Amino acid sequence: MPETWDRVAADDRAADPRTAEAELLAEAGEHGTAATEALTGRLAGTAGSGASGTVAAPTRRHGAAPAAAPHGVSITGRSTRVGDRVFKGLAAGSGGLLLVVMAAIAVFLIWKALPAFSGNSGNLITTQAWRPQSSPPFFGIAAILFGTVVSALIAMLVGVPVAIGIALFIAHYARRRMATVLGGIVDLLAAVPSLVFGMWGLYFLVPNTRGFQSWLSEYWGWLPFLKNTTATSTAQYGQSLLMAGIVLAIMIVPTVSAVTREVFLQVPGETMDAAWALGATKWEMVRTAVLPFGRAGMISAAMLGLGRALGETIAVALVLNSGFVINPHLTEPGGDTFASTIALKFGEASGSPKGIPALVFAGLCLFVITLLVNSAARMIIARRREFTA
Amino acid sequence: MAKQIDVENLNVYYGDFLAVQDASVNIAPLTVTAFIGPSGCGKSTFLRTLNRMHEVIPGGRVTGKVLLDGEDLYGSDVDPVNVRRTVGMVFQKANPFPTMSIYDNVIAGYKIAGTRKSKNDFDDIVERSLRGANLWEEVKQRLNRPGAGLSGGQQQRLCIARAIAVEPQVLLMDEPCSALDPISTLAIEDLIAELKASYTIVIVTHNMQQAARVSDRTAFFNLAGVGQPGRLVEYDETSKIFSNPSQKATEDYISGRFG
């Protein structure tokens, strides 16, 4: 029924005022110039571009192109618009600024750390002590490198699986109301200042987990890193690297889980349907469709968490009982990280020529570690790029 | 191995909303049945009840019976997971797993079920399924490339290969050609004609010529009115539906006089 179709089509067009006007315009273009110009003004007005004052300029009337064509629009030449140039400049400028800032930080760190390379009676890398004020100065990053890497590693091992579990639950298991509430709590937790985590760790977690640490040492002590070789009673357990790692784990959970949740929510429905239709159970669907899809996002989220764990200062400084030795027994008190050392030693550093350079060198090491870890993560993500959606 | 489907007085709900009312059809083994009807009339919804995919949507539920060779899919002791392993499905939008290679996409059903097989067995399954989907010659050189890198029509055939790799007894197709060009559509239609030898096929389509070309029987779904549930208006031999339908609504739809 051609008539019917035509009528329906006409009705459809009439439903959209802009289309209807464009059509009027097209018709007017065949009939007379005056009408066209009147309508052009109307069209430009309804299109909302009247503010710029140049609506009459032919190049701006994209919507009216078919009708405008008979009136001498040129398609040659470059159409330049202020907005495009401004935005391009802003975007490129922001990107450039980022590089400049990165470079400035690197240059500053290297420059200010240079004095630390000379006049050290210890070895900058292997010495397990931090006495840049003494004469001669005696310091090295061995112990704090160990403390930083180990506490961040514990945080990742404990925190990331939990965070991914929370994100999965929120995105694919919880009912909507539950998911909203939980999601809100996670976001809230991410906003809690690290000082609060540190105080909670020191005054609640440490005293209340002495028994747990003692149990670990006693029953899991065949794993050397869980053995406490010095404590003779439960009361002597406490401010260990393990606890610092666990506090860090709790701190990174909200960050990691907020990011992974967003990634999991973006899994296309049709990909999940594909798994369902092949007879997947819920977990099999998650394993087949959700987790592989979120792989890159999970790695990125973990890197965000790792960045926070590596750089966390005050919580670690509060929880840890300082001690500049590499101690592989993680349940024994003591330990330091780059960030906590920089914070704790700053007060006494300014009095001596090597104090500040030594701390800046520690900062440089942290900077380099972060860069290395992030690059490694990018390489892992890029390796299977063509298989990511 | 292909099975008979008997649907008895099925009502399909989204929460409290009745989407399809009181539909009954009998689908014989090794036939192609087409569901046609205007958008929103419930034909895709109805199709998804035949392998319990409807329940994946929160609030999705049914009353009535769907019998697969006499066994009620909605029986209290039936696991929807097993139903979906028996009744395969191909979707409107080709949906190969984006993170998997062509090879892994084909054997995804086995991987999901945790079935262990030797590399040789899997190789055989992949070749047989891809040949079955008329895709083997086009992809045999690049089985380890991402499935999402294929063209739209190839992706859809990959999805068909994935569905038939697990040797289902029924194959449901939800507008499998709606996003494809005419040549890819023809390839899929030829494939349906071949697959009919081994599977009971139910296909939803908006394209009436397609329904006329590929199906043995056709079911016409329609809405009684705005906000009303979809109903099965007529179900008969395809030739009869398209030449001499018994219902006025069917005739109007077939000839373009609807609404």
Tell me what the structure shows.
The complex is a heterodimer of chains A (389) and B (259). Chain A has 389 residues and is mostly helical. Chain A folds into 3 domains: 2-71, no CATH class; 82-114; 118-387, Orthogonal Bundle (MetI-like fold). In chain A, 67% of the residues lie in helices and 1% in strands. Chain A has helices at residues 2-15, 17-31, 33-46, 65-68, 82-113, 142-173, 176-190, 194-208, 210-219, 241-265, 269-277, 282-293, 295-311, 314-319, 338-349, 355-383, and strands at residues 130-131, 138-139. Chain A has a two-stranded antiparallel ribbon with strand order 1-2. In chain A, α6 runs parallel beside α10 (241-265) and α13 packs antiparallel against α16 (355-383). The longest helix of chain A is centred in the N-terminal third of the chain and has 32 residues, at 82-113. Chain A is flat and about 85 Å long. Chain B has 259 residues and is α/β, with parallel strands linked by helices. Chain B has a domain at 5-92 and 169-254: Rossmann fold (3-Layer(aba) Sandwich). Chain B is built from 11 helices and 10 strands. Chain B has a 10-stranded mixed beta sheet, with helices on both faces. In chain B, β7 (170-174), α8 (182-195) and β8 form a beta-alpha-beta unit. Chain B is globular. The termini of chain B are far apart. The mean pLDDT of chain B is 91. The chains are: A mainly alpha (389), B alpha/beta (259). The interface between A and B is medium-sized, with 29 and 36 residues. Chain B: InterPro entries: AAA+_ATPase, ABC_transporter-like_ATP-bd, ABC_transporter-like_CS, P-loop_NTPase, PstB-like. Chain B: Residues 5-248 form the ABC transporter domain. Chain B: Pfam families: ABC_tran.
